[in-house]
Amino acid sequence: MANEKSFQVNLRGIIELLSGHLYSGPNVYIRELLQNCVDAISARRIAQPDLVGEVSLELIASNENNLPTLIVTDNGIGLNEDEVHQFLATIGQSSKRETMDRDTFIGQFGIGLLSAFMVCNEIVLISKSAKDNSSPVKWTGYANGTYKVETLDFDMDPGSQVYLRCKPGCHEFFEFDFISHCASFYGEFLPESIKVVEKENAVVINKEPPWSNLIEGNEPDVEQLLDWAKDEFEISFLDAVPIQSEIGDVNGIAFLMPSSQTSGSRRSDRVYLKGMLVSRAVDNLLPDWAFFVRCVLNAKDLSPTASREAFHDDQALSLARAELGAALRDWLVDLSKNNSEKLQAIISVHYRAMKALAVDDDEFFRLMIDWLPFETTLGHLTMGEIRAQKNEVRYVPNIDQFRQIAAVANSQEICLINAGYSFDQELIEKMPVFDRNISINAVDPSELAHEFGDLTLKEREQATTFIRTADAVLQPFKCQAEIRKFKPVDVAALFTSNEQSSFFRSVEQTREVANDLFSGVLDGLSNDPGLSSWPQLCFNFANPLIQKMVKITDENLLQRSIELLYVQSLLQGHYPLKSNEQRVLNEGLLNIIDLCLEAGGGSPDG
Amino acid sequence: MADQNDYEKLGDMLTNAGMLEHSPAKVAMLEQAVRFADSLDDVEASIEARLDLIDAATFSGAQEKTLVAFSWVLGEYDKNPDLFLNDFDVLWRYKWVLDNCVKFPEISIEKILELCEDFKTRVLASGFGLNSLYDSLTSTFAFVGHLEKAAENLKLWKETQRDELSDCPACELHTMASVLLDLDRTEDALTTMRPLLANEMTCSNKPQHTYAMALMPLYLNGQVNEADKYSEVGYEMTHGDHQYLDTNGDHLNYMILRGNLSKAIQNMERHLPMAIKSMIPWDRLIYFSACRSLLDELCNRDQEQAGSLRIPHSIECVATDGTYDPQELRQWIDVEVSDLCSRFDRRNGNNSISNQIDQTAKLVLNH
Fold first, then answer.
1. Which of A360, A397, A524 is facing B104, going by the closest CB pair?
2. Short-list A314, A303, A328, CA closest to A241
3. Cross-chain residue pair B75–A442, CB shorter than 8 Å
4. How far apart are CA B308 and CA B329, in angstroms?
5. ipTM of this complex
C-alpha cells in the first residue's frame, strides 16, 4: 500500500482567495452569518416543529482600540465539541450537506463562515447543541489558519453565538446602518425573526414577502403589489401576474414593464432562495423572450452556485424556466380569450417580445398572430386585418426596399408588409402553420414594376427610341431600364433594388476608395455568380415630364435628360452617389443652367 | 456642413442600433446610419458608423458586409491614421476579415495570403507579436485542405507568445480543436475541446460553436450519450440566430443521424429561409447539404411527409400555395450544393470540401 499523504495547503492563502474572490464584496458576510443561523434553526425544527426561530445581530462598541464587535445569535440546533472539530475545521465540509435532510438546508457549503475573515481577524463561536446535554463549546478561528477549541463550564440555551471583532480599516462594515441595511437587503423576507440591535436601538428587519398570499392560490391584490413594486423598483408597472413552477418550487410575480424593451436588454430578476436574496440581477430563470417583464420570485428547490449569488444552470433550472415561461404565456392566452382590450393595450407596448415568443412557440403563434401588428404600405395593420382583405400575405424583406416602393404601392393600393424588423419575416413565413390555404409571397421591389400598368402597343411604339436610349445610357451605371404606367403620376421614375443588387452597389462604391489589396477582395465578392441582378429604373409613362421626354428627337438632349433623371431618382431614394453619378449630377446641373440661359435669350428683353 | 442636430441624430441612430441583439435588423439600422453618416461628409462619423456595422454584421451572419465596410475603413486608416483612437480597433477587425475570407470561394488563396502578409506588416509596426497571425494562417490552411501548411503554422502558433491581439483563450482552444480534427487527430481534438464542453471556459460564442463541432467526433468515438446531450443543449442555444447558420446545419445533420426527424424538420423549416438569404457561400453549402440529407431520409421513409414541409415560396419549384414535388426540391438543393462544392474545390485546388460534404452525407444517412 502506497504511503498516502495530504497536500500541505496554505490555509491563510486559501482563506484570502475565497474571501477575497468568491464573493462579490464584503457585504456578503452578513448574508453568510444569517444563512448559518437560518439553517441551524431549520435543523432544530426537525425535532421541534413548534420552534419559533430568533436571530439577533448585536453591535457592541469597543472599550479599547475602538474596534467594535458584532454578536450574531440564533436559537438553532447548535454544535457539540465533535461537530465543531469536524465541521468548522474543514473548508467545504458542511454539517448541513452530509448529515441532515438536504431539503431543509439552503446553505450547503461550509465556506460561508470564512467570509467573515474579510472583515475580521478572529472569529469566536460559542455553541450549545440542542441534540444532547453536552457542555457548550467555544471555537476560535484565526485568519492565519489556526484555531482552538475549549469546552465551557457555564450553561446556556441551545443555539449559537458568533463574535466578530472588527479588524482595522473595516469600521464601515460594523456600523448599525450598514448591518441593518445588509440584513434587510438579503434577509427581509426570511421566515425567522431577525433583529439588529445597538444599545437601546433595536430594529426588526422582517417584512411580508410579496409572494406570501399567492401560495394559497388566492386572487392576488394587484394594486398592493404594484404599489410595492413602485417603491422597490421606481417603475410604474402595468400589471402584476402570479407565476409559478412546480419544478424548483418557484413562486412569485411577473411585473409588466410600462414601456417596450428591446431584445438586447439583459434580464434582471430578483430571486430569493427560501426567503434569502440570491441576487437582484438573476438572468437565467426566465426565457429570453420574456423581456417585457421584471420578476420577483422565491425558489425553494433550485441549486445555487458556491457564492450563492446565482443559480446553477442545471436541468432543474432549465425546466423551471420553461414552466415559468409557460405560466406567462398562458396568462397572455387567457387575456386573448377574456380581456381582449387589455391584451391589445399590452400588445401595443410589447409586441416585439410577443413576436419573439410566437416565432418559437406554435401554440402561442396560433392564438396570437391575428392580434400582432405589422407595418404595411397601407398603414399599421394587425395580421388579422391584413388577412381580412385577401387570404394572401405579401412582404418586402428589407426596410430600405420597403421604403423605396411604399409610396407607389400605397397609391396602387397594393398591401405589402415591411418584414425588415426582427421576427417579422419568420412570423410571415410561419403563416401556413395557421392556415394551410394562405399564400405567402416575398416581393422583390424591382419586380414590382411588373404590377404596374402595361403600355399599349401604340404607346410602346411611341416610347421605342426613349427606351433604347435609356438602356444605353444606364448600362455604364449597371442599371436596367423599364417603362410602365403607375400612380402617383408625379413620380417620373422609380429606382428599385433588391438586397443583392443593393449589396452589389455597395461593393462598387467601396471599390472606389479601397486600396489595391482590398479591391481584389471586393472583386472576389462581386464575382459571386449569385449576384446577377442589377437595380432597376422604372420610368412612369403616365408622368407629364416623361411624356415630353418620349417626344425628344435630339439624341444628345435625351441622353442628358435620362442621365439626370437617373441621378434624381437616386437622390430621391437617399442613395449615396458613386463618383460617375456625382459627375453626371455636377455636369448635368451646369448644362441645365446653360440651356435655360440660352432658352431665355440671355437678355431681359428676350 | 453637418450641424449639431445631424450629429445628435447620428448618435441616436447608433445608440438605438446598439440596443438590439446582433441580427439582420440591427445590421439594417447600422447600414442606414452609415448612409446618413456618409451624407454628413464627415470621415470620422463615417468611420464610427462603419465600425459598429462591422461588429454587427460579423455576428449576424452578414460577413459579406464586414468585408465591404472594412475595406473602406482600412482605406481611410491608411490615408488618415490620426482619425483612429488606436491601431487595435482596426487590427482586431482585420482578424475577422482574415477568418471570414475563406468562406467566400471567389477570394483566392493567394489573395488571402497577401492579406495575411499585409496584416503581418501592420501588426509588427504596431508593436504586437505574431500569435494572432499564425492563428489565422493555421485555420486558413486547415479550411482549404492544405494540411501540411496547417500543421506547420500550428507549431508556429503554439510557439509564439499571446498578446492583446490574440483570440480569447476559449476561441483559441476551439480553433485548435477544429484544426486538430482536420488533421485527423481526433483524440487530441476531443481533449482540447474538453474545457469548452464542460463550460470551464466560455465566451460570447463558445461553447455554442464547440457543441456542434463535437457532435460527429464524439458519436464516432462511441460517446453517443454525450453527443446527444450537446446536440440538445447546443441547438437550444443557437436556433433562430443568424450567426449560427452553419452550426445549425451541423445540428441538422446530427438530428438526421440520430433519427430525430421531427426536430430535424423543425430545424429545416426554421433555417432554410435564412440559408436562402445568406450571402456566405460556406454557410449556404453546409446548411443546404444538410437539407438535402433530410429530404433523402424523408423520401426513403415517407414520401408524404417529404412533400409537406414548410418551404419558402422564393424557391422556384414551390407553388404559391406552398406545395412542391420533393424530388424537384431535392434537385434544386442538389444543384446549389454541387455548384458550391465545385466553387470551393476550384479555389482550394483539391477535393477536401466536396469530400467532407459527401462523407458527412453518407455517414448521416447510413445510420
1. A524
2. A328
3. no
4. 12
5. 0.84
